[in-house]
Specification:
It is built from 22 helices and 31 strands. It is α+β, with helices and mostly antiparallel strands.
C-alpha cells in the first residue's frame, strides 16, 4: 500500500477557488434516497477521489456533476456557474470511462482528433494538438494503429488523451482502471498522477479501490450509503479514521468492540470479549458505559513473549507470505481473528500454524472509535473525578442511566444488502436505560418500506401492548456481530434477508425463538429455530411499456436471455444471488431442480448474455431507474419497486409469468435486553390481519396460510406469484448462507473480466 501525502506540485494561483460545488444535493429514485444532502467542494487544480463500496453514491455524484442525471434537490456549481440543469455538452468537462469507449474503426490519431473535429477546429490545429497529446502520453509511435492492436493500458492512455486534447477545465473519471490487471493498474496510477501534475487540470476520480485512492489523491471523499462518511488527505483517513466504516474500508483493521469503563484513578478502559485494555485519548465524547471500538492496524501489532496490558492470547491459524511482509491470523478465545503483520526477515524466527502466541501493541498506536455505524462528533470530553470515585453501585447505575449528547448526525448508517436507505431514526447506541419489555429497537430498510413497517406493525403493536418500538436503519452482519461479541446488544429484532439470516445462525448470533410466545399457525415457508420467515418478495422481468409494447419484450427468463428474439440492452444485478438462479432457469434448469446451484453452468450462461449488458445495477432502485431513464431496455427487479415507479408515473411494467421469490426473516440478536418483548413483536407481525395489511400495502406475499387465503380472495391477488405453477423459484437461504461470500467474489471478478 502506498500513502500519498498532500500534493507536491505547485498549486495554481487560483488553487483555492472552487471548480465544483455541490450544495445540499439529494437524489431520489422513487422511495429510495440514493444521495442525501451532499455538500462537496473541489478546488481548482485538485485531484479528488470519491471512494466507497458499490451503492455508496459515488457514481451518482459523478453523474450529477456530468449532467447525466438531475438532482432531486440542491444546486451544482462548476467554475462559478450554476449547472444544475445544464446539458452535459455545455458544462465544459471531459470524461474517461472504464471501458475506454474508443471507436474501433478509427486509428489512434483519429480517435484523439474526433472531439476537435466536432468542435470544427482547423486541420493544422487539430494535427498539432493531437501530436502534443500523443507526446504527452508517450504513445506517438502507435498513432496509426487501431484500438484492437493496443494493450489495455495503451487503450486507456488513448482514452485519456482524447479527453485532455480539448483542454477541459474538469476531468471526471469513472473507475477507469477497473478493467486492467494489477501491474497495468499500478502503471496507469502513476501515469495519471504525472499528467495531473504536468497539466494542473482539476480531476474528480471514482473508485472502490483504496490503493488507487491513497496513491493518487490530493484529497479523498469516502462515501457510505449516500452520504459523505469522511473526507481529508490520504494519510488523515488512514491514520485518523472517524468511524468503524472508515477504518474497515481504508486499510486492514483489527477492531475490538466493547464497553468503556472508568478504571481506578479515573482513566478509561475498554472491556471487550477478549480482555480489558487501556483507552487512548478519544476525539469524540465518551463516558463510562458507552459502547466503543478499539482500532489497531495489523502493522502496529507484534508477536510478544509475555502478557501485558495491551496484548491478547491466541493460536496461529495461518501465516501468509506477502513478499516483504508476513501476515499472521490469530484465533482468539472468542473465535474472533486478530491480524499481525510483520516484516519478512529471513533469519528471524516466525510463528507457525498451531503455535500459541500473544499479539501486542503500544497504546499510543491504537485509536478509539465510536460504535459501528456512528461517526465521530469531535468534542473533547474528559472523564470527571465524580465518575472516577463512584461506588460499584453508582457505576452500575451510570451504565444504565447515562444519556449521550449524540446528535441525529450520529445515527447508524444503512449499509444493507444493496439497499441505500434514508436515515429516519435516532442513534441505536443511545446509552439510555430501556425498561424491560417497555421499549424495543427494530431494524428496517428505510424509505417507503420504513413507513409501511411503522404503520402496519409498529403503531398497532404499541397501541395494543404499550411497548414502544424504535425503528432504525438496517445494519449489516458485521454490526450485529460486533454487538453480540461485545455483549452490548442494542437491537432487539433484525429484519434480515435470506443470506443474512442463515449466516447469522451459522455464527450463533441469534437467540432461539420462543415458540411459547411466537405462534404463527400454519406457515407457507418454514423457518428455523432461530429465525422466522415473515414474507416473500418477487423478482422478475421489467421493461418500459412505451418503448416495448406487448409482444416486443420478454416475459420470462428464457426470453430475457434470448437476444435474437428480443434484441436490446440488458440491465443486470451486481449481486450474484438471484442472478445465478435466473441464468440457470434461462438455460433450461427446472426451478424445482435449482439447488444446489450448478455454478459453472450458470457462469457459462452468463457469458452468453454479458456482451448485451449495458449496465450493472448495484442497487434495487437502479434496476428500475436504468430502464425508465433509457440506460437499458430490459431488467430484473422486484414487483414492489416497479409498482412504486408506476405510482410515480413511470411507464414501466413487470411480468409475473416467471419469478424468483426470496424470503425476508425476523431474528433476535443473542443477548437482546428485551427478548420477550422482541418475541411478542414477531408474533404480532405474524398475525393474520397484520400479514394481510402488509401484503396489500407492500405488494408482498404473506407467509401465513390464513393470510394468504384472504389475500387470494382480494383484488391484491393480481399482484401475487403462483408458487405452485412449476415456473417460479424460491431462493434457498441455506445454500446462499453457506456459499454467498465465495460466489459473490467470483461474480464480482467476472463482471470486471
Amino acid at each position: 500500500m502506498t500513502l500519498s501525502s498532500a500534493s507536491t506540485r505547485t498549486p495554481a494561483a487560483d488553487g483555492d477557488k472552487a471548480m465544483v460545488e455541490l450544495q445540499g444535493v439529494t437524489k431520489r429514485y422513487g422511495d429510495v434516497e440514493a444521495l442525501h444532502r451532499v455538500d462537496l467542494t473541489v478546488r481548482k487544480g485538485e485531484f479528488v477521489t470519491l471512494l466507497g463500496p458499490s451503492g455508496s453514491g459515488k457514481t451518482t455524484v459523478l453523474n450529477l456533476i456530468a449532467g447525466m442525471i438531475v438532482p432531486s434537490s440542491g444546486r451544482i456549481m462548476i467554475d462559478g456557474r450554476d449547472t444544475t440543469t445544464l446539458p452535459t455538452n455545455q458544462r465544459g468537462l471531459g470524461m474517461v470511462f472504464q471501458n475506454y469507449a474508443l471507436m474501433p474503426h478509427m486509428t489512434v490519431f483519429e480517435n484523439i482528433a474526433f472531439p476537435l473535429q466536432v468542435r470544427q477546429l482547423p486541420k493544422d490545429e487539430i494535427k498539432r494538438k493531437v501530436t502534443e497529446a500523443l507526446d504527452l502520453i508517450q504513445l506517438a509511435h502507435v498513432a496509426g494503429r487501431r484500438p484492437r492492436e493496443l494493450s489495455g493500458g495503451q487503450q486507456q492512455r488513448i482514452s485519456l488523451a482524447r479527453c485532455i486534447v480539448y483542454n477541459p477545465a474538469l476531468i471526471l473519471m469513472d473507475e477507469p482502471l477497473g478493467a486492467l490487471d494489477k501491474r497495468l493498474r499500478e502503471q496507469m496510477q502513476l501515469e495519471i498522477k504525472r499528467l495531473h501534475a504536468e497539466l494542473g487540470i482539476t480531476m474528480l476520480y471514482v473508485t472502490h479501490d483504496q490503493d488507487e485512492a491513497l496513491t493518487m489523491s490530493d484529497r479523498i471523499v469516502l462515501m457510505n450509503s449516500g452520504r459523505i462518511e469522511q473526507e481529508g488527505e490520504p494519510d488523515q483517513l488512514y491514520f485518523k479514521p472517524a468511524s468503524v466504516f472508515s477504518a474497515e474500508f481504508i486499510g486492514s483493521s483489527n477492531l475490538l468492540p466493547g464497553v468503556v469503563e472508568v478504571a481506578d484513578g479515573g482513566s478509561l478502559e475498554l472491556r471487550t470479549a477478549i480482555g480489558t485494555f487501556p483507552v487512548p485519548a478519544a476525539d469524540f465524547a465518551v463516558a463510562h458505559g458507552d459502547p466503543a471500538v478499539l482500532l489497531v492496524r495489523p502493522e502496529n501489532m507484534t508477536l510478544t513473549q509475555g502478557p501485558d496490558a495491551t496484548s491478547v492470547q491466541g493460536i496461529v491459524e495461518d501465516s501468509i507470505l506477502l513478499g516483504g511482509v508476513v501476515r499472521h491470523f490469530i484465533r482468539c478465545a472468542d473465535r474472533s481473528t486478530i491480524i499481525v503483520q510483520e516484516l519478512n526477515q529471513p533469519h528471524r524466527p516466525s510463528a507457525s500454524r498451531g503455535d500459541q502466541v500473544r499479539a501486542g501493541w503500544q497504546p499510543a498506536h491504537a485509536r478509539l472509535l465510536p460504535p459501528s455505524g456512528a461517526v465521530m462528533k469531535p468534542i473533547d470530553v474528559k472523564p470527571t473525578m465524580e465518575n472516577a470515585t463512584m461506588t460499584d453501585k453508582q457505576k452500575t447505575t451510570m451504565m444504565t442511566d447515562t444519556t449521550h449528547s449524540t446528535s441525529r448526525r450520529s445515527v447508524l448508517r444503512a449499509i444493507g444488502a444493496g439497499v441505500v436507505g434514508a436515515i429516519a431514526a435516532p442513534a441505536v447506541f443511545t446509552g439510555r436505560a430501556r425498561a424491560a419489555d417497555k421499549a424495543i429497537t427494530v431494524t428496517s430498510w428505510g424509505g417507503d418500506y420504513h413507513k409501511s413497517v411503522q404503520e402496519v406493525f409498529v403503531e398497532p403493536f404499541t397501541k395494543e401492548t404499550g411497548i414502544a418500538v424504535t425503528l432504525v436503519d438496517n445494519g449489516d452482519m458485521a454490526k450485529v456481530k460486533a454487538q453480540v461479541q461485545s455483549k452490548a446488544v442494542q437491537w432487539d429484532v433484525i429484519d434480515a434477508p435470506a443470506a443474512f439470516a442463515t449466516s447469522g445462525a451459522r455464527e450463533d448470533l441469534w437467540e432461539p425463538l420462543d415458540m411459547s410466545i411466537i405462534k404463527p399457525g400454519a406457515i407457507v415457508q418454514a423457518g428455523a429455530p432461530t429465525y422466522m420467515p415473515m414474507y416473500l418478495y418477487s423478482g422478475g422481468i421489467l421493461w418500459d411499456s412505451k418503448r416495448h409494447p406487448d409482444g416486443k419484450h420478454p416475459v420470462d427468463f428464457a426470453g430475457f436471455y434470448d437476444v435474437k428474439r428480443f434484441p436490446g440492452r440488458r440491465v443486470m444485478r451486481a449481486l450474484a444471488s438471484e442472478t445465478l438462479e435466473v441464468a440457470l432457469i434461462a438455460d433450461g434448469v427446472a426451478p424445482k431442480n435449482l439447488y444446489p446451484l450448478d455454478v459453472e453452468r450458470a457462469f457459462r450462461a452468463l457469458d452468453r448474455i454479458k456482451p448485451h449488458v449495458s449496465k450493472w445495477a448495484s442497487t434495487t432502485p437502479e434496476q428500475v431507474s436504468s430502464v425508465t431513464q433509457n440506460e437499458g431496455d430490459f431488467s430484473y427487479s422486484y414487483f414492489n419497486r416497479v409498482k412504486n415507479a408506476q405510482k410515480a408515473g413511470s411507464p414501466v411494467d413487470f411480468s409475473f409469468e416467471q419469478t424468483v421469490n426470496s424470503l425476508d426473516y425476523f431474528a433476535v440478536p443473542k443477548g437482546s435486553p428485551n427478548k420477550e418483548a422482541a418475541m411478542r413483536f414477531i408474533n404480532f407481525c405474524l398475525r393474520t390481519d397484520r400479514q394481510v395489511d402488509w401484503a396489500v400495502r407492500g405488494y408482498y406475499l404473506p407467509n401465513t396460510v390464513a393470510a394468504l387465503e384472504q389475500v387470494k380472495a382480494s383484488p391484491a391477488k393480481a399482484y401475487l406469484p403462483d408458487l405452485n405453477n412449476g415456473k417460479n423459484a424460491i431462493v434457498n437461504a441455506e445454500w446462499w448462507g453457506a456459499n454467498y461470500t465465495a460466489v459473490q467474489k467470483r461474480y464480482a471478478e467476472w463482471m470486471l473480466s
